[in-house]
Design brief:
Strand content: 15-25%
Number of strands: 11
InterPro entries: UCP012608
Strand order of the largest sheet: 4-11-10-9-8-7
Organism: Pseudotabrizicola sediminis
Bound molecules: S-adenosylmethionine
Order of helices and strands: HHEEEEEHHEHEHEEEE
Helix content: 25-40%
Protein name: DUF2332 family protein
Pfam families: DUF2332
Amino acid sequence: MDWSWVLTLFSCWGRLKAPASGGCDVGPVCHCVRGTGACYALGTPGGLIEAAGSAVTLRPEWQGVVPPMVAPVVAARRGVDLNPLDPKRDGARLLAFVWADQTLRLARLQAALGLAGGGGVVDEGDAADWLEARLQARHPGQAHLVYHTIAHQYFPPTVQARIEAAMAAAGARASADAPLCWLGMEADAAGPGAAVTLRIWPGDIAVTLGRAGFHGEWVEWRGMGD
Ligand SMILES: C[S@@+](CC[C@H](N)C(=O)[O-])C[C@H]1O[C@@H](n2cnc3c(N)ncnc32)[C@H](O)[C@@H]1O
């Protein structure tokens, strides 16, 4: 199997079908993929991974292996959050949370807010309720990616356990033609930053892809290995 899509989806720095942020990256992220490729570009030592029309470029300090320069084709995406924000309604407030002298962050956020407006949907709801329902559908011929960043630690233990069970149950129904992937960028005890982990079914293969700064400042990439 060609694993190159894993990095490229990561480059979206967003969520496809998992808890989205209630913060500044909800809207942009849910629009970060429009049919093909990512609207967020990612700078790497191998070049820029981007889709046409990328309005926001993330340029983390890159350590480790160079990722493959391949863009995925995204058939559909959807997110969920307990309290999804509306970039149009809440954008000015989000900008106010950034220190005024952090001009690069402000420019990036403004560009990201500009991406919002059409395409993706972030549902209002609980991640476990939402995933249990959403994972019922299989998608033959497509990889189904569940993706979250810095969200797991906020879920109550019962929600965490239900998500684990729902993923395992859906994983047991996965096939080579309809694989299930679970990508997380989440805090752990190891540090620094967050662990970037991947589980893939069928087979329940678990890989630590690397680590990343909590706000994408740096990436230490191991990739899928050999
Ligand atoms: C730290 S923020 C997310 C940060 C964002 N994903 C990022 O990487 O920048 C945590 C988010 O989890 C959401 N959240 C917390 N508990 C949740 C639950 N049970 N179901 C869905 N979303 C939840 C919160 O509303 C909040 O938007």
